[in-house]
Amino acid sequence: MIGFFTENSADILLKTWEHFYISFSALLLGVVIAVPLGILLSKTKKIAKIVLTVTSVLQTVPSLALLAIMIPFLGVGKVPAIVALCIYSLLPILNNTFIGMQSVNQNIKAAGTAMGMTPMQSMRMVELPLAMPIIMSGIRLSAVYVISWATLASYIGAGGLGDFIFNGLNLYKTELIVGGALLVTALALLVDFLLSRFERFMIPKGLRMQGGRTS
Amino acid sequence: MKKLIVIFLVTILLSACSNEANDKIRIGSVVTTESQIIAYIVKGMLEYYTDEEVELINNLGSSVVLHQAMLNGDANISAVRYTGTDLTGTLKQEPISDPQKALAAVQRLFQDEFQMTFFDSYGFNNTYAFMVTQETAKQYGLEKISDLKDMASELQVGVDTSWMNREGDGYEGFVETYGFDFGRVFPMQIGLVYNAVSQNEVDVVLGYTTDGRIASYDLVVLEDDLQFFPPYDASPFADTDLLEEKPEVSKALQRLVGKISTEEMQRLNFLADNNLIEPAVVAEEFLKENEYFSGDDTP
Amino acid sequence: MTDMTQLSVVEQFFFYMRENGSYVFSQFLAHFQLSVYGVLLASVIGIPLGIWISKFPKASGPVITLANIIQTIPALALMAIIMLVLGLGKTTVIVTVFFYSLLPIVKNTFVGIRNIDRSLTDAGRGMGMTKFQILYMVELPLSLSVIITGIRIALVVAIGIVAIGAFIGAGGLGDIIIRGTNATSGTAIILAGALPTAIMAIMADVLLLWLEKRLDPTKRKKLRVAA
Question: CATH number for the C9-221 domain, one of 1.10.3720.10, 3.40.190.10, 1.10.510.10, 3.40.50.10780?
């Protein structure tokens, strides 16, 4: 088993990087779309329900199906994988941003406006920081999902640690399967752990919540 | 009402448990269309002639996995095994170019080493072959591989990625036997070679003799005049124990021996690969057309 | 014979469905059956487990943490490992589904029972109910809706996992998806596999969501016995 790690060290580094790259790109794209959208929805509640339902439905779709559907439109490789994973990352972030913004205490917002803040300033200095714990929690959840499902992305040619598992399955090579599984699990757990630390760090000092997790 | 629900759920659960009884027949199949069609043909025959429960273990990645599945007991029948692949791959022997001798060798070795029965052939041979378009064949008068020798250095050839490094019957061996190599060789996914040659992206390709696309692109298969490529005769394959315990299974499989020619396999592959018909459906129609081969009642 | 390659994807899709309809349907059923078996197994073990840890909160930490860790493991990885032990085929898939269904079911059972207003269980005790009667007649009915949420989440995940199961020979709609990705112009086939899978997951979600709402005592307009 140690042999797996020593013989394939170059591949391991490459595929870990690929895996991370796909996941990070998908997550970044997801944050860029979902956070502003979530803020927007919290201000215009009418379409909120529809948008949230649509994203919820998209998340229900099994990931293999979603990845496969990308192929006719975007071919194979990293791009369709990133798009599919991005779609997957939307719901937790969107949902949490929406809820987070809504949960900001109205009195605090009012205090801000009373002090003469413009809506933008209110957003930047009051609402976002207060909503941040919940938003971060959503991002963390999405990140773990994405790292996990990126394993499957190797099936559509995106590379990543899933390659080890698929190659292992195709050639019935036990070390590839075990090695790949260990690596990808370690990566997922590591990211989960790091982000939970980061989450705590992001909470504004005046607001250390008991427990921390809100999702 | 609540009681009814509980009973209902428990019944489902119990049926789930009984489903895992190991008495079932499990047919292992690799991911190729051909293997899947044959797998469903075998399934259809077994369900028609016996009372056994038959299950498919499908989409296995390669012949290595299939062999492993048979060893583990995950499968007790292999949909289709090829003399060439098993001789050099699974049994790690030297390739044998005489089809009869190759068959005899695999039959003996599988029984001795693994207690598995390699039947006589279904009737088709799925081997590597060089192919060109009708126009190319006419233009240069190509009928056999040796005809390519004179213009070999100008040829662009598309081949299956794994063929480049195959031992024995790969590119190296080919160059040795035929005494020439090609101008440029493009490794690609095996599924893409047929399209590549028909679109004139390359001049010649190395494909499989039973692929349905040979007919759909009207390709010409060049004769292997120096008999470089070993035979890949396809046969049914099963655990000897299974066959002894359940002779009806053995008889049903025997009915299929010699019943599917290379051309017929091409046609079946074509229906699945080109005409979007699922292997399961192709198999069913094939069996119905042939009345499940009930005419021949001698095992 | 019409040249398939000349037809548009939509036409190919409908042609495919006409020719292979019953095959697709039988794979649909097989797929659903595998998902349900796994979730059912997880319920049979997970609900009692959730009840137990709700009574012994000290155990809840480790149990839920363990279930959380299982959840973080990518499904393909866990399935491949289980395959090395249990072999190829349906059994491995059902067991994999079982593992992934545990967290939602156990956690939701735990939360559902813990969140019940103390005064309600006290009232039960005051009436002379035994612990088992309280469980059966007060706690479970009140937490049923939350438990069903857990089952709903588990079932949706299960359908996704069974799709991957095709890679280890378990069949289901994943077989069709694999065939579509391997075929040279398999768009119609990919859709024929992916769409029913997506629809199955969405329908399971919608139906169980409806059931949840019907069973939630706080949301019911009229008091109806959960049928």
Answer: 1.10.3720.10
Would you call C181 and A68 a contact, using CB atoms and an 8 Å cutoff? yes
> How close is the nearest chain C Cα to the Cα of B141, in Å?
29
- Chain A residues lying within 8 Å of C202, measured CB to CB: 57, 60-61
Determine the residue of chain C that is closest to B18 in CA distance: C91
- How does pLDDT run across C165-180, given as a tens digit for each residue? 999 999 999 999 999 8
B3-53 pLDDT, tens per residue?
A: 656 666 666 666 555 555 567 899 999 988 999 999 999 999 999 999 889
Whether B129 contacts B163, CB under 8 Å: no
Say which of C78, C160, C168 has its CB closest to residue A63. C160
Helices within C127-186 (DSSP H only) = 131-134, 140-165, 173-182
A162 touches chain C (CB under 8 A): yes
Average pLDDT over residues B118-147: 91
Domains in chain B with CATH codes: 2-125+233-293 (3.40.190.10), 128-221 (3.40.190.120)
Out of C76, C81, C156, the one facing A60 most closely (by C-beta) is: C156
Average pLDDT score over chain A: 85
Contact (CB<8Å) C169/B74:
yes
Q: pTM here?
A: 0.85
**In chain C, what are the domain boundaries?**
9-221
Interchain contact A142–C (C-beta under 8 A): no
Q: Give the separation between CA C93 and CA C161, rounded to whole angstroms.
A: 8
- Shortest CA distance from A165: residue in chain C: C77
Q: Which residues of A touch C198 (CB under 8 A)?
A: 60-62, 65-66
pLDDT digits (tens, 9 = 90+) for A130-179: 888 888 889 998 998 899 999 999 888 888 999 999 989 988 889 899 99
CB of B276 within 8 Å of a chain C CB? The answer is yes
* Contact (CB, 8 A) for B67 and B220: no
Is C167 at the interface with chain A, CB within 8 A? yes
CA nearest to A87, candidates A142, A147, A46: A142
A and C: number of Cβ contacts within 8 A: 107
Best of C15, C167, C177, C179 to disrupt the B interface by mutation (most B CBs within 10 Å)?
A: C179
Pairwise CA distance, residues B270 & B282, whole Å: 10
Cβ contacts of B65 on chain A, cutoff 8 Å: 169-172
CB atoms within 10 A of CB B166: 16
Please report residues of A whose CB lies closer than 8 A to that of C76.
151-152, 162, 165
Is the CB of C36 less than 8 angstroms away from the CB of B31? Answer: no
Give CA–CA dist B126/B265, Å, rounded: 9
Touching subunits of C (3+ CB pairs, under 8 Å) are A, B
pLDDT digits 0-9 by tens, A23-71: 999 999 999 999 998 888 888 777 888 888 888 888 889 999 999 888 8
Nearest to A1 by CA among A185, A151, A176, A160: A176
- What number of other Cβ atoms are within 10 A of residue A159's Cβ? 19
Are B129 and B207 within 8 A, CB to CB? yes
Strand partners of residue B219? B133
